[in-house]
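Researcher: Structure for this, please.
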Amino acid sequence: MVSAASQAAPASPQPLPPPALPRAVRAFANYLLLHAGLATTLAVAPALVQRRRPVPPSASAHLHIAKLLNSLHAAGIFAASVPLLYGKARPWARDWLRPFPDDLDRALARVIGFSAYDAVVLACCATKVHPSVWTHHVAAALGAAGTRWYKLASYLPASFLPTEITVVPTNILEHLDGLIPSTLSPSAAAIVYHVRTILLLVRCALFTVFRLPSTFLCLKGALDAERVMYAPLAPPSFPVVVAPSYLHCRPNLRRCHEEELHRNKEAAAAAANTAQPSETAPPSSRRSTPRVALSFLWRLLTATPAVVAAGSLNNMVLFGLLNSWWTVLVYRALFRHLRAPPRRGAAVGTGVHHI
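Model: Predicted structure, token format:
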């Protein structure tokens, strides 16, 4: 016979495992080793061909190597995040708060490693770096580390990962500006001008598709998950469903969970005594409005630890503003390029660095 006290007291949950630190350290070391290997090849290969002593690469050469690794990193993050968000698995399709797939943990570890690597290269080799680049690197590394530690609301930062694909055309433009001489023949200048035009158009398209609506798509995905999971319930009586493994050292979630369970039991008992149970209510009365869905999203988010709530809000607001401003910059660079004659095409800047 099980007593009532033992029924009321749930089993003590096991604490969540800490993030795998070696993954981030290994990613940082891999980028440094790749950079060192490419820099050594750049110094030794011409010396072997010309039979002279190797010359260390210049600071600009190190920046070009960093841009190449940046493009590879961005393509990898894009390839890892798109199947999670839009593929068949879609772990956040019904719950944006709790799922934390291992593929996301690996991607976030690579974000931390690359942010640290790129910060080292910029600090050592770049003479002038736009403040937004530092803001992006610091916010990305801290946000990825916090998400890996708490493992809550991971959909919110994950929805911004596909925007990394925009760095690929930007880095190609940087390579084009740095490697092609400024004085060209008219035919060569025309070819470079048209290549730059295509790259600028592709970059504007990627910014318009991925970066400009990133915050809107993030909120839309979270609200769609809520509608799928809680549509059968009459608003605003949404339950806060939290797995026991997420309740350790989180009193806000535990208290909110217990209060909602108590209210839902009372509502179910009252509905059982009425002539029309809540399950037979018309669909229109059970459909959550955007205002109710946003209110519930806010309640869930503020019930998480303060670091998770503040970091998630900061991520959406900060990267939403940065992505909007960077979109303005890339369109400004496109229009400035189109107004320039082909002879000057190779000398027109890209308008935004590293993004």
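Researcher: Any notable elements?
Model: Residues 1-15, 232-251, 275-287, 344-348 have pLDDT under 50 and may be disordered. The chain has 13 helices and no strands.
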